[in-house]
Amino acid sequence: MNQVKKTKYDSKIDGSKTGSDETLVENFGEETEPAISRLLKEIFKEESKNSYHRIAATDEKVFLSREAFGYLLELVHKQSIDEYLFEKIVSLSMSIYQIMNKEVTKNVVQKITNVMFFTNPDAVTVKEIIDWVMDSDTASEKPIIN
């Protein structure tokens, strides 16, 4: 008779809630293969929630600074934004580059992220983003007190 120790994932496999670290012994049965399959799916599902492996494409390296791209990846890894918002911000950055013909920096990406985070990302236009970024840049140059 083959035996195996239970792990912390066993409650996810068979639905039991042991709640202790005691070593439990269980017989291999015909349900072992589906149980292992469910275990592996659960492990990879948990891992995939926290990982987003994305490398900047060649054309993205032209319009988006390395620091800006890294900042966006960091936000995804911290789960501050999701992959959809990441891609939306990269796409907007490309449009801004095409219009302004300047590399999009981390500072600009932070401003875009703020706008996108607090509004409906699908409703924001490139023109609105550019206006907001330009307005905030000129506002920071103006003295607060005349």
Largest sheet: 2 strands, antiparallel
In the sheet with the most strands, the strands line up as 1-2
Strand content: under 5%
Helix content: 55-70%
Structural class: mainly alpha
* Order of helical and strand elements: EHEHHHHHH
What sort of overall outline do the alpha carbons produce when their principal axes are compared? elongated
| Strand count | 2
In words, what does this structure look like?
With 146 residues, the chain is mainly alpha-helical. The protein is built from seven helices and two strands; from the N terminus they run E-H-E-H-H-H-H-H-H. The protein has a two-stranded antiparallel ribbon with strand order 1-2. It starts with a strand and ends in a 5-residue tail after the last helix.
